[in-house]
Structures are given as C-alpha cells and as structure tokens.
Specification:
Length: about 425
C-alpha cells in the first residue's frame, strides 16, 4: 500500500520530469539483470572488496532512476550510501576547493537505512561512540580508558592516509559527547564533513594539523569506508551522477584530464584490490564515455581499462565489465510502467480509475506515432506526458481521455530540453574549425 506522502512525491517528481526520492519500488520495471549485477558487487564489497561501475545511458533513459533504485537496495542491505551530482564547481579534482565541495556534498547526503533522506553522519558517529562508551563503562572503565579504547579500535585506520587525525577527531567528538559540549561535537562533525577551509582553524578547534583538501578527497572516502565497516555496516557505496559535466562542460583540457586521472586512480584501486569496503557508481551518457576528443576515452589509460568486451556482441552482454550500458525499455515495459503510475493515481481503488487499459494502449500508440522509437528508449518524456494526462483527467471529471489523445495525436513531438552539459562549448571546440 502506498502512503499519501509517497504518492504525492512520486506524482510531483514525475510531472516535473525528475526522479522521485522515495517510493521507487512502486514504479520499477525492467533492468533486472543490471540490478543483479550491481547486487553482486555489493556482496563483494561487504566481504571487504571494492568495485567501480559506470552506468551509461542516453539522456532520459533512466540513469538517475537506476542510481536511486540501487541506493534503496544498498540501504536495505545495510550499506551506507553517499550520493552527489558532478557540477563545474563540484568535481573529482580541482585546485580551488571543487573536489572538497564534492566531498562535502557526499558527506551531507550520507544515508543509512534509519536515515534514508541523508544527514546520517552525526547519527553514525554518535552511535559508534555511544556503543564503545557503553561497553567500556560496563567493564568499570573511566573516561580516559574509553579514549584509549576508541584509539585502539581505530588503530587500523592509522595505516591509511590521515588516519591518525581521523581517529583523533573521533576522540574529540567523544569528549564533547561525555561533557555535553555541543560546540566540540559540531567542530568534529564539520571536520568529518570537510567544512574546514584552513588548517589553522582546525588546529585551534580540534588540535589536528590536517583537513580534507582537494588532493585528499579519495583518501578520506576510503577512510570513511573503513570506519562505517567498523560501525557494523556492510560498506560504503558512492553514487556520482552527471559525469557528462566533466567531458562537455570543462573546457580546459588540463582540468578534464586531471579529473580523468582521479577516476583512473579509483578504477585502478578497485580493480587491483587496493581499496576495501567501498563501491563506486558513476553515471554518464555514451558521448561522455566514448568521445575520443573530450570524453573519458580521450584519456588512453581509461579507454583501455573500460573498453568493451569484443566477444559481447550481437545481442550478447557482459555484465561483469566495468561499464553497464542501460538497455532500452521494451514497449511491454513501458506499458507496465504506465500501469503502475495509474495505480498510484487511483490508489488501487477501481472505482477511482481514471484511464482504462485500452486508454494506456491508445496513449502508447499516440506516443509511437509522435516520437517513434524514442518513446521507450528514453521514457522520461513518455512518463511526464502521461502524468500530465492523468492530472487533467483527475481534475476535470467531464473530460474524455479519447478526446484528449485524439487532440494531441497530430501535434509534433518536442523533446524536453536536456542539460546543457551535453553541448560542446569553449575554446577546445574551435580546434577542428575550418574555412
């Protein structure tokens, strides 16, 4: 049974052409093989491994929906999930705080099963510190003993970059926890979220000599992955969407290659077993990946590692490869999807049904006539228009669905505008210009 909150959120999101943040299981269709491939990755991560996948699909094909669906699956499997979109000011590498901004966004959106909406970092740290404190107090230990116990348990982190400072910040959080010093607790959380801009400020408030900076973002993600496993979770899943910004919005070649080098480091660590308890999902378009001039494949080392399996051709797929291409939904999948959306509108009450089964079939026929194959290859426009149809029928009881569909059948199709991240701009694009 769908709750009123989920129902409203799903309808509003789909009407705007964006992915709902809740209730995805109510409208999920297809993609079963791809989901199972990533679930196998999660099993590998939960056993101490690391994985990196690239989810590739056209604009409107469902990449963001797929990432959010996997986020929901990961939370159910007791993962901690961090999710963020790449922007020009929030990316994997930068010299002016851009990478730290991405880390801040990931930390802000940190989710657990009990805090699926994000903001779970404080809950995560407090829960672990409270557990250690409770066990130590049960053995008759003092505050100093608890501090030593926290440092002892975090000793494995000291093998990682900045692990010593990470452990000391957790101890500072504990000190604020037992003395009810909210200022000290907040300072520790700010450090963990990457919000300190200078080392001087961090040293004054916490006594540590390092902060999370652009060049150390990936190292701190590995630290966070190790910590969440200590806290009893299966691992850390990092979802990064809008990779197309790196390829088609960064006009400086050096900046693009620096970001690709950061991706290469992640790919190498995951493939070679140098990372533990962490999984990465990057989402982008085929142009973002395959463009030999601006895309990820313009960086030769990545092109080699992410190249398609030559034997996976003529309908054969290799879902163990780092790149997962989202297959188009079938017309049957589209029918099932629209049926589920109709059920969300009528709440399962047949007496409130706004559109019969033949109405959905007729709507898909109209979509095929207007859009061609695009209506199921990139279902965003199909779904958005369908929700609009349902809303009009809901608010105008005297209106006939046949009249609405017949009136729109002859209209030319105009696709929803996509992000200008997919456009080529800037000085690099003039390099092939000829008179």
């Amino acid at each position: 049974m769908i709750s009123p909150r989920e129902r409203t959120a799903i309808i509003q999101s789909l009407a705007a052409g964006v992915v709902p943040a809740v209730g995805l299981h109510h409208i999920q269709v297809g993609r079963n093989d791809e989901v199972q491939a990533v679930v196998r990755d999660m099993d590998h991560v939960s056993q101490g491994g690391a994985t990196c996948r690239f989810i590739i699909g056209r604009f409107g094909s469902g990449k963001t929906f797929f990432l959010n669906l996997l986020r929901t699956v990961a939370l159910q499997r007791k993962f901690v999930v961090a999710q963020a979109d790449i922007t020009t000011e929030r990316r994997l590498h930068g010299s002016g705080g851009q990478a730290r901004s991405l880390y801040c966004e990931l930390a802000k959106n940190l989710s657990t099963r009990s805090r699926p909406e994000g903001g779970a970092l404080s809950n995560l740290v407090e829960r672990w510190v409270d557990e250690v404190d409770h066990e130590a107090r049960g053995s008759g230990k003092t505050d100093d003993d608890v501090r030593r116990e926290i440092l002892n348990r975090l000793k494995p982190l000291q093998e990682l970059v900045s692990g010593y400072d990470f452990a000391n910040v957790i101890v500072k959080y504990y000190e604020g926890f037992v003395t009810h010093n909210e200022t000290l607790q907040l300072a520790a959380l700010r450090w963990l979220r990457g919000e300190f801009a200078t080392k001087t400020e961090a040293r004054q408030e916490l006594g540590v000599r390092s902060i999370i900076e652009d060049e150390s973002v990936y190292d701190y993600l590995k630290l966070m992955a190790a910590f969440v496993r200590m806290a009893g979770f299966a691992g850390l899943l990092v979802n990064v969407d809008e990779l197309v910004v790196l390829s088609h919005r960064l006009n400086n070649t050096v900046a693009r290659n620096s970001n690709y080098e950061a991706i290469l480091r992640i790919v190498n660590d995951c493939l070679q077993g140098r990372a533990s308890g962490i999984g990465f999902l990057f989402a982008g378009t085929p142009e973002c990946l395959e463009d030999r001039r601006r895309g990820i494949f313009s960086y030769e080392a990545l092109a080699t590692r992410l190249a398609a399996n030559r034997f996976a051709a003529e309908g054969l797929r290799d879902l163990n490869a780092p790149v997962i291409h989202l297959e188009s939904l079938t017309p049957e999948d589209c029918y099932v999807l629209l049926t589920k959306i109709r059920e969300i509108f009528d709440g399962g009450d047949l007496t409130k049904r706004l559109l019969p089964d033949q109405g959905i079939v007729r709507y898909l026929e109209v979509c095929q006539q207007r859009m061609g194959a695009a209506y199921f290859q990139t279902p965003r426009d199909t779904v958005k228009d369908f929700v609009g149809l349902m809303q009009v029928l809901q608010q105008n009881a005297q209106t006939s669905w046949t009249q609405l569909l017949d009136a729109k059948q002859a209209e030319p199709f105009v696709a929803s505008p996509v992000s200008d991240a997919g456009t080529n701009q800037g000085e690099d694009d003039m390099s092939s210009f000829r008179l």
